[in-house]
Amino acid sequence: MRSHRRPRLLAPFLLVPLMAGCFASGGGDDSASGDGGDGDGARLRVALAFPPAENLSPYGADATLLSRLGVTEGLTSLDANGSAAPALAESWRRDGDRTWEFSLRDATFQDGGEVTPAAVAASLTHATDAEPAPAALAGVTLSAEAGGDRIVRITTAEPDPVLPLRLSSPSLAILSKGAYGKSDRVDPVGHATGPFELTEVNGATSAALDRFDDYWGGRAQASGIDARFIADGTARANALRTGELDIAEAVPVAQAASLDEKTRRDTATTRTTSLLLNASSGPFKDAGLRAAARGALDTSVFAKDVYEGYGDPGAGVYGPAVTWAEGKRTPPVGRAAAKKPGGDTIDLATYDNRPELPEVAQVVKQQLEKAGFTVKLTVREYSRLEADALDGKFDAFVLARNTLLDTGDPVAVLAGDYTCDGGFNIAQLCDKGVDRAVADAEQIADTAKRQDAAMAAEARIIGSDAVVPLVHQRIITGVADSVQGVVLDPYERALVGTGTRR
Hints:
The protein has helices at about 15-20, 65-70, 115-130, 165, 235-240, 255, 285-295, 300-305, 325-330, 355-370, 385-390, 410-420, 430-440, 445-465, and strands spanning about 45-50, 75-80, 85, 90-95, 100-105, 140-145, 150-155, 195-200, 205-210, 225-230, 245-250, 265-275, 310-315, 345-350, 375-380, 395-400, 465-480. With about 500 residues, it is an alpha+beta fold. Strands 1, 8, 9, 10, 11, 12, 13, 14, 15, 16 and 17 form an eleven-stranded mixed sheet that branches. The chain has a four-stranded antiparallel sheet with strand order 4-5-7-6. Helices cover about 25% and strands about 20% of the residues. Helix 12 (about 410-420) packs parallel to helix 14 (about 445-465) and helix 13 packs antiparallel against helix 14. It is built from 14 helices and 17 strands. The model is unreliable at about 1-20 and about 25-40 (pLDDT under 50). The radius of gyration is 22 Å and the shape is globular.
């Protein structure tokens, strides 16, 4: 059995403070209150779609809960173009093939300690020792050490041309010494560096945060956040509509029309919903049957009907929010000829945390059955499906995957999801041509050439028919009329920033 790391994709999504200036906001000035805003601004009432699943560990899916609430940040962030931008590191330079030096800005941990090179190196060392390893470190071995006044030196076992991008991952947030106790549990409460500090966590129900007044980027305009974890999308929309919430993330498309137009914000994201076909066992081990399944799907209906226009037709692994991809996309390579289904029964699965996915799966089921397959559909909450999906127990899986969430590097998602040793290879794809193309792309430092190589690898992956892109998702955020400065982030890492206020 292939070993797997746990995924980090489904949490809706680091590095909020700097992103506040990079992406579209819900309106108004995003400057911090120290620049003339209301220093005692009202608390924000925010609903998130995914409750904590791992005690707010920064190494798993909960990492993006912390980043979206403005609790954590790393050495770098992602800008609107998908490039590495400064965060706790003001600048960086490469020193040889395997070592990078990061110059730290003056910053303070929420427990009062200084963000020093030693503290940063220790935090990154804890991340490298974590089990399972953070997704951003899949296939990467690194060591970090203090390199002098304000300098952190990070050395990788093999050359890593995208290390600054990798360090933007929510799962590589920098925490103080106090976060790491004697147990394996990492406690971010009061030990992070962002503009908001966790003060209370009520299991999977709610959390309270206060403004961190010593934040290096200036005081946040809101005095705090009262966060609720509401898995039911209809309940989130209703709470916004009745004035119980200021911000509701991931409003279901079915509820969008129930909200006033002024309270809806839709954003193209780097999230693609795809049908993954098990290429290692069951009926879809046969490439000809995978080709038949792909040919049976009319993908045009998903954006138009299921997502009611809040999506774009599936074109590849990367969607329109990855702005460079369309101009570099090449035709699929190596597709097999389709075979006629022989009454094979397909175990198809998806999860209901994202309310559109069961409907997507129902349409997929109908289209496959029309082509001659017999389909059994399983729908559960994601945490109850994850282990089975990673172990290849389903023949087909409908997945919404944020392709740039983990690292911002377009090659990383290909390595993690579609190579023989990939840590999130639900498709169970193991193809020498794909592995070779991804490995070639991983060695390229030049941005444009790396993108070209990523698209060449994508062509082989799509050609395997182990993945059929269905729709590129637009996310709907509900924002009350009184709220300004919400961060509408295509990477889904950010939501609340220093300029978010009501």
